[in-house]
Amino acid sequence: MKLLTHNMLTSNIIKGVKNGYPLKISASDVQLIDVDFNPEFITRMIPKINWKVLHEAAQSLGHANDLPAELNAEYEADQEFLKKTHHVLLEVEVQEGDLICPETERKFPISHGIPNMLLKEEEI
Amino acid sequence: MTKAERRAFKKQMRSQHTLLRHENIISLLHQHLLIANGGLGNSVSRDMLEKVFKPCGSILDIVMVPGKPYSFVTFSDLSEAQSAVQSLQGTELPSSAASSEVPPVKLYLSFVKSVPGAEVASNILPAGLTLIQDFVSQEEEIELLKCIDWDYMDPQLKEDSKISLKHRRVKHFGFEFLYSTNNVDPDHPLDMGIPPECSPILQRMLSQQIILNLPDQLTVNQYQPGQGIPPHVDTHSAFEEELVSLSLGSQVVMDFKAPGGCHYPVFLPQRSLVVMRGESRYQLTHAIAPRKSDVVPLACLTKDNQMKLTLMARMERTSFTFRKVRNPPVCECDFPEQCDYQKLKKSNRPLTKPISTSPKELETEHVHQVYEEIATHFSDTRHTPWPRVAQFLNGLDPGSVVVDVGCGNGKYLGINPQLVMFGCDRSSGLTAISHERGHQVWVSDVLATPLRDGSVDAAICIAVIHHLSTQERRFQALVEMKRILRVGGKALIYVWARDQKRGNVASNYLKESSDLPRDEEIKSAVDAKDLKAELPTELSVHVNRTEFQQQDLLVPWKLKGKEEKQVFHRYYHVFEESELEELCQRMQDVEVNDVYYDQGNWCVIFTRIH
Questions:
Q1: Which domain of life is it from (chain B) (predicted)?
Q2: Is the pLDDT of residue B102 over 80?
Q3: Domain limits of chain B?
C-alpha cells in the first residue's frame, strides 16, 4: 500500500463511524521501491490529495524526511519538492501491518501490500 | 377566402385523401360525414361529438373506429348533413375533462358515400375467463379500499416491495411476491395475512362456487390513470390454477394475448370480479396498457345491443388479486410451453425449493468463493479490455482520481496512465493479481467502498452488480457508487444482459470470443446432475453459450485441474432492457447521461448532480 492509497481510504463504511479519516497506520514491514519520476503527474496529483494527512502518515512511518508540513504556493516549479512528494506518495510501500479506524480502533490488516477492508455482517 | 378558410379547405382536402387511403372511400355530397380530428385515436368521445352535432338535425348514427383520429356521423337527410358542414367546419371542441391537457381540437368535415363497418371489440372472453359484474356493492368497495394502509411498510418485506414499482403501487398479504424471481417463498409467510375485511367476499366466492379453494395470498395493486402492468403469465409453479381479481375504483381494459397473437381486450367494469382458469390463466398473457383512457364497446355499459364504441377515462384503480400459493410448487397443466415447472423438469435442471439461504449466503457460496477458486484461471481469460470502457477512461481529464469497483485482475487500471486509478475487489486472489501488476488496490465489498463521500472524479463498475442477488442490493451498490463520486463526477456501469442477441448481432458471449476459454464447453446435463444434491435452491443452471432462460441463474465455470475437471457455479442476475437504467433513475441527485448495449451487456453512464 502506497501512501497515495492511504490518503484515499476511510473506515466510514463501519456502522456508526462518521469520518473514519485518516486511518492510523501500524506497519511491521515498510519497503522502498523505485518508481519513475513524472513531475507532471505529481503536480496534477497534489491538489487531489490531503497534504496534512500525507505528511502525518509519512512522519508516522519515519519517511517524511524534510517534507514540508505545509504546501508552498509555488510548488509547481520546485523540482526538489516534487521529487520528495513523489517519493512519499509512490515509493514508500507498507507491506505488512494494519490500518486502524480513528474512531473505533478497528484494525484492517495489510498483507502482501494489500489492505483488506472487508467488514463483518454486524459491522455494516 | 380568408386565410382561416383557406386553411380549413386545405385540411378538408387532406382529410379526404386520408380517408381514401385508409378506407377506400371517395367523398361526394351525402348524408354521411367524415369527422376528421374527431376520433377515438385523438381522445374524442361519442358524447362530445353528439353534443356538437345535435343542433344540426337528427343523428342516425355515429361510428367511431378504434385507434383512428376520425369518425363518422350520419344524419337523417342530406340537408342536415350540409348544414352541419356549413356551420361546423373547423369548429373547436369545447375543452372537457378529457381534452383539457391538450390544445383545442378542430373538427374538419367532409361528405362520404358510405360509412365503413365499425370494427368492434365485441367483448368476447378468452377460454377459461369468467367476468362477474357488480360482484361487490358500493359499500363493500369503500370498505375494502379503506382497509389498505399504503403508508405502513411491513418490516418483513424483503426487497422489491420496499421500493415503489415504477408503474404502480403494490402491497402483499399472506406471502410476499418477489419480483426478482416472479415467485413466492412458501416457507416464509408474512405475519400480515389477508385482511379480515376480505373474508365475506372470499366466503361469497366459495359459496357461489366461483372458486374451489380459499386463497392465502393477496396482492393489491394501485394504478393511477396512465399506469399499467406489462404482459405476463402468473408463474405456474407459484400459484394454484384459480386466480381472481377485483377491480375497485375504476373500470379498465385488460389485454389478454394468446401465443399465436390472438388479442382479447376485456373490459373490466368497476366492482367486477374476473376469474382466470385454464387457457386464460396458464397460456395467455395479461396486461394493462399504460393509458389514461380505454376504448370500450357501448354494449358493455348499456343493455343496448348495438356495437358502438366510446372512450372512457380511467380513474385511480385498485385491484385485489387473490391467489393460493402452490406447495409443493408442482404444476401439471396442459400448457407446457408456458409452464416454468414442466420446462425445468424437461431440461433436467434442478428444481427443489425456492432459495432458502439469505442473499449474503448465496453470494458467498456462488460468487465470492467461486472467484477465489477460479481467480487465476479467470484472470488468464480476461485480458482484452472492452473498447467502450477504455474509451470512457481515455475521455476523462488527466489527473482524475478514478476507482474501479470490482476491478478483477485490474485490466482497466493501467489503460490511461494520465489517471490516478485505484482498484478494489471482493476477491483477494484477484486483488493480488492486480497488485502484482503494480496497481494500487485493496479488498472491499461493492456495498461498502472505503472511500470518503465525494472523493473521486469517476468510477467504473464492470460486470459486478449482476452478482448481487436482490434488487435492493443491486440498487444499494449503485447508491454506494454515487456516494463516493464528487458532484459532477461520472460513473460507468456494465451488467450482463438477458438478451444476448440484440439487433441480430450475437454478442461475443454467444459467439465464443477469444476472450473466453476454449475449455468452457456446453455440457449442461452433466452440470445439472452435479448440482442437484448440493444446491437447495430453485436457481437453474445455465447452458453456456445459449440464450438465458430466466433472470436469476447459475452459470458454470469449468476449471481443468491436474487430475479432474472441476465445475463451479457463479450466481448471476441478468438484466432486462432498461432495468439498469430504471434502477439508476431511482437514485436521487443522479442524471443518466447514456444507456447502451455493448458486448451482451446493458451499460449506463450517470453523473452525480448534487
A1: Eukaryota
A2: no
A3: 3-112, 129-323, 348-354+502-571, 359-499+577-608
C-alpha grid cell for residue B21?
Answer: 387511403
How many helices (H) and strands (E) chain A has is answered by 4, 4
Q: DSSP strand E in B185-238: where?
A: 217-223, 229-232
Do B450 and A116 count as a contact with CB atoms less than 8 A apart? no
Instruction: Provide CATH code, domain B3-112.
Output: 3.30.70.330
Q: Which residues neighbour B459 within 8 Å (Cβ) at sequence distance 6 or greater?
A: B402, B403, B404, B405, B481, B484, B485, B489, B490, B491, B492
Query: CB B330: neighbour CB atoms within 10 A?
Result: 12
A118 touches chain B (CB under 8 A): yes
Å from B441 to nearest chain A CA?
A: 7
| Residue B453 at interface with chain A, using a CB cutoff of 8 Å | yes
Judge contact between B587 and B598, C-beta under 8 A.
Answer: no
Say whether A112 and B445 touch across the interface (CB within 8 A): no
Give residue-wise pLDDT tens across range B256-286. 988 877 888 899 999 999 999 999 999 999 9
Instruction: State the average pLDDT over residues B301-321.
Output: 76
* DSSP strand pairing (B309-313 vs B485-496): unpaired
Please return the burial class of B476, using the count of CB atoms within 10 Å of its CB with bins 0-12, 13-18 and 19+: middle
- Report the share of chain B in percent with pLDDT over 90: 38
In B, minimum Cα distance to A2 occurs at: B440
Q: B450 and A44 in contact by Cβ < 8 A? A: no
Select from 3.40.50.2300, 2.60.120.1520, 3.30.450.20, 2.40.128.90 the CATH code of B129-323: 2.60.120.1520
**B119/B110 Cα distance (integer angstroms):** 21
Q: Is B399 on the interface with A (CB under 8 A)?
A: yes
B443 vs A1: CB contact, 8 Å cut-off? no
Chain B's closest residue to A19, CA to CA, is B452
Whole-number average pLDDT of chain B: 81
Residues of A in contact with B399 (CB under 8 A): 41, 44-45, 48
Give the amino acid at B423: G
Distance CA A90, CA A4 (A): 7
Name the percent of chain B lying above pLDDT 70: 79
B92-99 contacts at long range (C-beta below 8 A, 24 or more positions apart): B93/B38, B93/B44, B93/B48, B93/B52, B94/B48, B94/B51, B96/B48, B97/B313, B98/B43, B98/B45, B98/B48, B98/B293, B98/B311, B98/B313, B99/B43, B99/B44, B99/B48
Tell me, yes or no, if A33 comes closer than 8 A to chain B by beta carbon.
no
Distant-in-sequence, close-in-space partners of B50: CB < 8 Å, separation ≥ 6: B59, B62
pLDDT classification of B375: cutoffs 50, 70, 90:
confident
Q: How many CA atoms lie within 13 A of A91 on its CB side?
A: 17
What pLDDT digit, counting tens, does each position of B538-585 carry? 566 776 666 676 777 777 777 665 555 677 788 888 898 888 998 898
Phi, psi (degrees; rounded to nearest 5) at B252:
-160, 160
What b/e readout covers B294-303, taking b as 16+ CB neighbours within 10 angstroms? Answer: bbbbbbbeee
Question: Which of the pair, A28 or B586, is modelled with greater confidence?
Answer: A28
For chain A, domains (ranges, CATH) are 3-113 (2.20.25.10)
Sheet holding B169-173, edge to edge: B129-132, B273-276, B239-248, B317-325, B217-223, B169-173
Q: What is the pLDDT of residue B557?
A: 76
Consecutive H or E run containing B555: strand B552-560
pLDDT value of residue B565: 62
B369 touching A (Cβ < 8 Å): no
Look up the CATH superfamily of B359-499+577-608.
Vaccinia Virus protein VP39 (3.40.50.150)
